[in-house]
Specification:
Layout lengths: L1 E3 L11 E9 L14 E6 L4 E5 L4 E6 L4 E7 L3 H9 L2 H8 L1 H11 L6 E5 L14 E5 H12 L1
Antiparallel strand pairs: 1-2, 2-3, 3-4, 4-5, 5-6, 7-8
């Protein structure tokens, strides 16, 4: 797995992670991200899932707390999607939230392999999403729990 981010004082070591190869969503422990996408290509440190439809090469982001995906369009490769979307300054600030992550890392430490940060309780059941409410746990388990809670 490739890790991406800026390792500086107060900045998380990795804002997002890309898998070495696309993971078929049916292998993702039953997590549903909608019908438009077939594979996961990575995830953010806050639990967003980066997805692709390998037939159309359309890429998107699944937002677990909203139970919704956003299609960012077709790209020639994962690297092209990464450059255009994941490295876009607006995306980094508003989705990857490095300032929030820096506060959480300061309290909980860096993520371990396959982990994400998440607020407790989840926002869709009344959680505030404030930095002091975050915990960390395994990525696929987090997605399963959120999926089950949302029905």
């Amino acid at each position: 797995m490739k890790m991406f981010g800026r390792k500086r004082a107060g900045i998380p070591a990795s804002l997002y992670f890309l898998f070495d190869g696309a993971v078929p969503l049916e292998d993702g422990d039953g997590v549903k991200v909608g019908d438009a996408f077939t594979h996961a290509i990575g995830y953010s440190a806050l639990g967003h899932v980066f997805v692709v439809n390998e037939s159309s090469m359309e890429f998107g982001v699944y937002y677990p707390f909203k139970a919704a995906s956003k299609n960012y369009g077709s790209f020639d490769s994962v690297q092209a999607f990464q450059a255009a979307v994941l490295e876009d300054e607006g995306f980094r600030v508003f989705v990857l939230e490095p300032d929030l992550q820096a506060q959480v890392v300061g309290r909980l430490g860096q993520l371990g392999d396959g982990e994400v940060f998440y607020p407790v309780p989840y926002p869709f059941v009344g959680g505030s999403g404030e930095p002091q409410t975050y915990d960390k746990g395994k990525f696929w388990t987090f997605l399963q729990v959120v999926d089950a809670m949302q029905g």
